[in-house]
Design goal:
By secondary structure, the chain is of the alpha+beta class. Helices cover 24% and strands 30% of the residues. It contains 3 helices and 10 strands. An 8-stranded antiparallel sheet has the order 2-3-5-6-10-9-8-7. It has a two-stranded parallel sheet with strand order 1-4. β9 and β10 (111-116) form a beta hairpin.
């Protein structure tokens, strides 16, 4: 195999994704570790990727779909904000320039999922991660 082919094969899907999340302790650390252990092998048809970073961060595909656990609730989340329920997990959705950012609502620990525009429909990713979120992070309040 040529040197160029070897380098390309070693790079996989562009190498590890650099992604940070907050330092975790206590219940949030346990729940996020449980979520990482329950992670789906693929999300929206994209395979799991390695992640360089702190905290519990997960990624799939290229461009990467990313999940961060133990993040603060979005500052734009207000009483009466739109709530999308997918597979019994409530999500707050924000459209960004390059995709969609979803944050769990009413869970004891907040999960952030970013889905780049290349994945359509973005909601497929929510379906794929919902079971892991339900098993790992208890619901403390349903959205209305």
């Amino acid at each position: 195999m040529s040197l160029a082919a070897t380098a390309l094969a070693a790079s996989g899907c562009g190498g590890a994704v650099d992604l940070d999340s907050p330092s975790l302790s206590g219940v949030a650390a346990t729940q996020c570790a449980d979520l990482a252990a329950a992670r789906p092998a693929s999300v929206a048809g994209a395979e799991s990727r390695d992640v360089d970073g702190s905290g519990v961060t997960l990624a799939w595909g290229d461009p990467p779909i990313t999940l961060r656990c133990g993040v603060p609730e979005p500052s734009s989340l207000q009483p009466g904000s739109r709530c999308d329920t997918v597979e019994r997990v409530d999500w707050f959705t924000t459209r960004t320039e390059d995709g969609y950012r979803f944050a769990t609502i009413g869970r004891s620990t907040t999960v952030d999922l970013f889905v780049p525009s290349e994945y359509d429909p973005a909601g497929d990713a929510l379906v794929d991660v919902a079971a892991a979120v339900r098993r790992s992070i208890p619901s403390v309040q349903r959205c209305l």
